[in-house]
Amino acid sequence: MQEFTFQIDAVSEGVRIDLFLAETLDGYSRSHLQRLMKDGAVKINGKTAKSSSRLKEGDQVTVTMPDPQEPEVVAKPMELSILYEDDDVILVDKPKGMVVHPAAGHSEDTLVNGLLYHCRGRLSGINGVLRPGIVHRIDKDTTGVLVVCKNDAAHGSLAAQLKEHSITRKYLAVVCGVIEENEGVVDAPIGRNERDRLKMAINEKNGKRAVTHYRVLERFPGYTYIECSLETGRTHQIRVHMASIGHPLLGDSLYGPSKCPFNLEGQTLHAAVLGFVHPSTGKYMEFTAPLPDYFVHLLEVLRQTKR
User: Fold this and answer.
1) Are residues 185 and 239 located together in one domain of the fold?
2) Which domain holds residue 24?
3) CB 263 within 8 A of CB 273
4) Confidence band for 106, pLDDT divided at 50, 70 and 90
5) Catalytic choice (18, 59, 88, 139)
6) In this structure, how many other beta carbons lie within 10 angstroms of the beta carbon of residue 9?
7) What is the rounded CA–CA span in Å between residue 138 and residue 93?
8) Which residue among 11, 55, 276, 296 is least enclosed by CB atoms within 10 Å?
9) What pTM, to 2 d.p., does this model score?
10) Which of 58, 1, 68, 60 is nearest to 32 (CA)?
11) How many alpha carbons fall within 13 Å on the CB side of residue 252?
12) Whether residue 298 sits in one domain with residue 288
């Protein structure tokens, strides 16, 4: 068994313990941690904690984690939208609502489950059993193109290109408010939000450099359709950067308004273009994922407001 101990500071004052641990302990879902609490494995100041317990500054939280068991990620037949495939890589158009890879307490119906079935288990092993072949991720409610590697050599090549910021990544988004300038750059470091551990934020002290280029594609009353190009790939980068300049993504209740006038499930963000040097041929390749139906319909509705 492994034991974790946390001393609660003022930033986490009043936060539910299940939310605090889900954010603090990477790789463990909130539901998994709640089960641990029911088993008495989580204590606050030596007393068994409940999921609803709220933390106070100065509290000492201890988590007794059972010895990890290597989970079996089951290959599962799923309908995948495959844009391209060869012996080294597979490019998938990920739909809204699909999680990329399993986490503790969530091991089915992810992209990895479907890829294991489709590729008959032939995926890079660099990221272990839970994330085979996964070089980069996109959020659950973000749609679009994602590259997955079938062998370790391809994985190493793509990972190096990501580190060098040489991969082309273009996203399409609708943001709240009308952006007056035709294009711009947000160059601001991103790290954990020091007041809310569930969010990322502009963090000058502890954040990592993040750069997003954006340009306006179309303006509507109250909204703007934009293209974003990434130099870096930080967690929630576009969502945080656009919110930081007063233009949060439409539908993004985490960084923008809690209520949305449209029937959306999460942020309006689509990974439209992905380009990289092929790990075997050395040739540059670029792939495009078409806009999902919900996005196309939203643009039609917004265009009607211009008339």
Assistant:
1) yes
2) 2-65
3) no
4) low
5) 139
6) 12
7) 11
8) 296
9) 0.78
10) 68
11) 27
12) yes
Check residues 48 and 126 and name the one with the higher pLDDT.
Answer: 48
Q: Which two tokens stand for residue 114?
A: 């479907």
Instruction: Give 216-269 pLDDT, tens digit per residue.
Output: 999 999 999 999 999 999 999 999 999 999 999 999 999 999 889 998 999 999
Confidence at residue 284, expressed as pLDDT on a 0 to 100 scale: 98
Q: DSSP per residue over 174-220, as a string? A: EEES---SSEEEEE--EEE-SS-TTSEEE-TTT-B--EEEEEEEEEE
Rounded to 5 degrees, what angle do the CA atoms 6, 9, 15 make? 85
d(C-alpha 214, C-alpha 170), whole Å: 9
> Are 239 and 218 part of one and the same domain?
yes
Tracing tokens 């806009």 back to the chain, one arrives at: 291
Let me know whether 126 and 143 are in one domain: yes
- What digits encode the pLDDT tens for the residues 159-210? 999 989 999 999 999 999 999 999 999 999 999 887 777 789 999 988 899 9
How sure is the predictor about 68, in pLDDT bands with cuts at 50, 70 and 90? low
Domains in the chain, number? 3
For residues 274 and 153, state if they share a domain: no
Hey, how many other C-beta atoms are within 10 angstroms of the C-beta on 173? 26
pLDDT for 192: 85
Q: How far apart, in whole angstroms, are the C-alpha atoms of residue 49 and residue 34?
A: 10
- Looking up residue 119, the CATH number of its domain turns out to be 3.30.2350.10
The DSSP call for residue 128 is T
**Which has the closest alpha carbon to 42: 81, 149, 59, 244?**
59
The percent of residues in the chain predicted with pLDDT above 90, rounded, is 70
Query: Do the beta carbons of residue 257 and residue 176 sit within 8 Å?
Result: yes
Element (H, E) at 35: helix 30-38
